[in-house]
Write a structure and sequence with these properties.
Chains A, B: Belongs to the aspartokinase family. The structure is a homodimer of 412-residue chains. Chain A is built from 13 helices and 18 strands. With 412 residues, the first copy, chain A, is of the alpha/beta class. The first copy, chain A, has a domain at 3-174: Carbamate kinase, CATH 3.40.1160. The two termini of chain A are 45 Å apart.
Chain lengths: 412, 412
């Protein structure tokens, strides 16, 4: 009998038929005695169409106006869903971010939510209405419309859950949960019933693109439970929550991987303080999302600095790297446009260094060469050839017995 | 060197190519030293598409949600135009009705503007920006989004002109002005350079659908000059302003006509006080737009009550009329679904009753039968067979010498 926040993605509201299905699902939850707050994305395809129009007009559209443009998509979804709920005999009301006071900073196209005024929403819930809110968008103090970046509706959902002290935030999508590995690659991949915020963040950062990173960070900060599930199936999906509490004790929770990565190495960089800061500061201003960074000290007082990045950013990053090479009097820039990244993730490995050894051994036995290694407390990531990626996922899924509840500590 | 408000309709912003053309036109005005405020409609076709989606979901969509939905169309146009202006090296900023405080009453889908907060607009003009505002929409005190009804962007333009004390409001459309008759029918029809508010209202009410009625009423109330002109041609169009001032002294300014009208007669209504109020009160609740009403007292203490209405409302109005017939013990309901309406309009006829006689005589000589007559101070309207309409327009255009400056009083 609490408040439930349900977020539906673009494919769930792609057309009027699907919007009616969402209305039915929302009303089922309502009939079970819950107050329901719904967050919607724009209908699938709408945002892309708007971006295309903007790009026809300007190769580099003004960001404030871009947000003005893009925020229309969600407003269409929310109005249509409210109509559908009325048509089914219940009451509803839709709000855009401005109306409901989803305040953000001024960083257009990638704004961060600062506060939400829950008063209006709570008043409408008291009137027995389903409250439907435009995801992805916010408003600045100056009443300018902002957007939160691709996937930002997940973050709107979590932020609303926190502001309304909801029991949980249900995120409906076109997959039915988080898997131990990509089920399109590993046919024995199992749905994970429960995963910690940290693990989810590491998996998401390693290629499992099921939840917007910011939304998980926000949920972690406030301990808001996320239930990731399918819009089209009735089954429970994956719960993302605090570590520990009723969670299965697996050493490795899942395996993430990503293709379409590239690697750049600036060879022979003079070994002076502040060089790395200079290189990555410059690359960051180009909005290139650098992932793994490795620096090798050579014998001659020079370093090789390598980093991985999305393939789509390669061209831009190479231009900057060439400039940096000249400025820093480095030797040369080399790159590899066909690398892959694989990561094993699990809170169980915090105190068990044996996981890394097991992983490297399994890859070696499968004759997969490791190019770079990066670790966190709960993740070990390796850069390998992209042609080895599928085999690596299968081998590691098997090694860590993820088709069967996961390997136990004593088995390592 | 004052403020000019320019309103562009949906065909002028139908695609990105046309939006660029609007940007050029706006910047020409700006380069001439004016501050420019632009009001835009939704891209042509957008509103119809949104209405179709709503109707797929609900045969009678919730009006608040309908306004939420429809207001997205203008927001797309204004953002794209702002981008186009930036791309041409100038500054611009777009505002929806909420951001700029276009306050209306709560009558969703047909709201009336109550006030506009000009402060924000004036501030942005001082920053040398072109200010671009979403037409057609408003916001209630409670922050709900409203719309002003079809064609409402004209009204937004005029209301902004008044609030900003603009020199004039330019309304850009796909015709180049108001004509002495529909130029598709009368090949000698002449563009009217100057027309009074009253004449424009009567012509618009008689079928010349070039300006939203409310916008002319509003302009008349505050004496705001409207310049109606083509988006695609450089020539001056038609100025709508106070009567008198530099205006040509024609008896008849123009001829309006409309097809697709129907007529209903309730025959044998008992002649009692309050009957007409009852009939038209009931019909009004059905949102049927009754135009001409005529009541004939029969010899037997019974009346025949006839009225004209748009053909599209005929079915609904007939149902109500049948109910009323039974309640009032009238004899029967008859109707004619093929009538036309023709009207001659001109302030010059205020003190010259000869116009009516000239009109009736001309129609009689052309063997066009007059079914109903309705007059105002500056208009004489006749209901005729719709098949006679084209001929009637040609005959009257000729009779009143509208191809040649208009008939003079002494010629009547």
């Amino acid at each position: 009998m609490g408040i439930i926040v349900q977020k539906y993605g673009g494919t769930s509201v792609a057309n009027t038929e699907r919007i009616r299905e969402v209305a039915k699902r929302v009303l089922e939850t309502k009939k079970n005695g819950n107050d329901v707050v719904v967050v919607l994305s724009a209908p699938a395809g709408t945002t892309d169409k708007l971006i295309k129009m903007a790009e026809e007009i300007s190769p580099n559209p003004h960001v404030r106006e871009m947000d003005m443009l893009l925020s229309t998509g969600e407003q269409i979804s929310i109005a249509l869903l409210a109509m559908a709920i009325y048509e089914m005999g219940y009451k509803a009301i839709s709000f855009n971010a401005t109306q409901v006071g989803i305040k953000t900073d001024k960083a257009h196209t990638k704004a961060k939510i600062q506060s939400i005024n829950s008063k209006k929403i709570l008043e409408e819930l008291k009137e027995d209405k389903v409250v439907i809110i435009a995801g992805f968008q916010g408003v600045t103090e100056n009443m300018d419309i902002t957007t939160l970046g691709r996937g930002g509706s997940d973050t709107t959902g979590v932020a609303l859950g926190i502001a309304l002290k909801a029991d949980e935030v249900e995120i409906y999508t076109d997959v039915d949960g988080v898997y131990t590995a990509d089920p399109r690659i590993v046919k024995d991949a199992k749905k994970i019933n429960c995963i910690s915020y940290e693990e989810m963040l590491e998996l998401a950062g390693s290629g499992a693109k099921v939840l917007h990173l910011r939304s998980v960070e926000l949920a972690a900060k406030y301990g808001m439970k996320i239930h990731l599930r399918s819009s089209f199936l009735p089954e429970l999906g994956t719960i993302v929550k605090e570590e520990g509490e009723n969670m299965e004790k697996a050493v490795v929770r899942g395996i993430g991987h990503s293709k379409n990565e590239a690697k750049i190495t600036i060879v022979g960089v003079p070994d002076k303080p502040g060089i790395a800061a200079k290189i990555f500061g410059r690359i960051a201003t180009e909005n290139v999302n650098v992932d793994i960074i490795i620096q090798n000290l050579g014998g001659d007082g020079r370093n090789d600095i390598s980093f991985t990045l999305p393939y789509t950013d390669l061209k831009r990053a190479l231009e900057v790297s060439e400039e940096l090479k000249n400025e820093l009097s480095a030797e040369k820039v080399i790159y590899d446009e066909k690398i892959g990244k694989i990561a094993v993730v699990g809170v169980g490995m915090k105190s068990h260094p044996g996981v890394a050894a097991t992983m490297f051994k399994a890859l070696a036995e499968a004759e997969i060469n490791i190019d770079m290694i990066s670790t966190s407390e709960i993740k070990i990531a390796c850069v390998i050839k992209d042609e080895d990626l599928v085999k690596a996922v299968e081998v590691l899924h098997n090694t860590f017995k993820l088709d069967n509840g996961g390997i136990k500590i004593e088995e390592l």
